[in-house]
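User: My instructor asked us to take a sequence, write out its structure as tokens, and then describe one feature of it. I'm not sure where to start. Here is the sequence I was given:
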Amino acid sequence: MKTVLITGTSSGIGAALVTEFADAGWQVISAMRSIVEDTRSNVQVVELDVCQRKNIEYVVADAIKQYGYLDLLINNAGYGDNFALFEECAEDEMRKQMDTNFWGPVNLCRAVIPNMRAQGGGHIINVTSVAASVGFPYGSAYGASKFALRGFSLCLAEEVLRYGIHISSFEPGMVKTRIAKSAHSLRSYPNPDLDEHYREVEAYADKVKEMYASNAPSSAKSVAERMLGLAESKHPALVYNATYDASIMAWIRRIFSVRIAQWIFRRLS
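Assistant: Let's start with the prediction itself. The structure tokens for your sequence are:
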């Protein structure tokens, strides 16, 4: 039985991944900050805060002690439901995004790679985003974290392939998850000079909520199905566009210059 450690599994894509992999016969280690019990025989729920390196090291060591190996790590934990003008976004908020969306996956990779190298192979899937290749307004903190994770994934892949370890950047676009309800504008340092501009941020956040609630082309289940296909592939892709809209955006980005591509995305958003 193959073993997978999945982070951020309490809801959304993470919860769908647990079900998809468990139903496919994998031993699933379901890692989340706040425990949600699971009675399935091949699902082990563990408490994990990806911002706590000691917690990461303990969870990985315990998993290897119990199962002897890890075939797959899925770095799914992350968030990006707030929108802000960069001038009004606190450094603490930006660091929080980087700690969760970038440093968490980096430290998990650091924890599992020695074991994967020793066992002669493995696979790490880092869930990035279409926002890892396209710049969207009012998301500088989130975009920076996902661009960083994508770049890290591409570089790391070149280092570890000789050990039989595959790295994939899994890049979804719009998916029907709780972001439809939680998207909101953020104003850490209100600046009166930016009041009018901030109203655009509020309108943008409301638009995103509406788009995710009614027009998101993919479900968490369909994304999980694609993830399973990637995990079970003999030749896993380095970059995987996980939803239809992500594939379209990737195509636009390849065909046009950055400036023209950004103009197109601006018109669509």
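For the description part of your assignment, you could build on this observation: The chain has nine helices and eleven strands. Try explaining in your own words what that tells you about the chain.
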